[in-house]
Amino acid sequence: MDNYIQRQVSQDIKKRLCVCFLLIEDNEVIGYYTLSNHSIPLQDIPNQLRKKMPRSYTNLPSTLLGRLAIHENHKEKGYGKLLLIDALKRSNEASISTTGSMSVIVDPLNNNAKLFYQKYGFIELPDSGKMFLPMQTISKLSF
Question: Top-level CATH class of 2-139?
């Protein structure tokens, strides 16, 4: 986590590759997440959702939750859930008012991350390792 914040995030922001949101307490970075525009091939989403999408879209607009990390000293305290909820809320609001997005996409680094996202309803995308949560599902959440 520290390596990304100290060495990379400013470059990513300067190049407009992502926007980074920090959780800070007592001048200490507890955790962060990044959001970016993304797209997902129509054929990669589950059939029941694919049938509802216009055939004219070969790629569907999505929001990439590219990074979500909590400092080692603050794991298992609920901060990951807090950051995820904030990311989903911001993504949903942007999909309504700023830029179209039909889902939030994540690319879990390991099995623990995968289990974390599954707990919140993310669905695996076959053959990609990525997971997604439809914006229709997110918009039904009460924040």
Answer: alpha beta
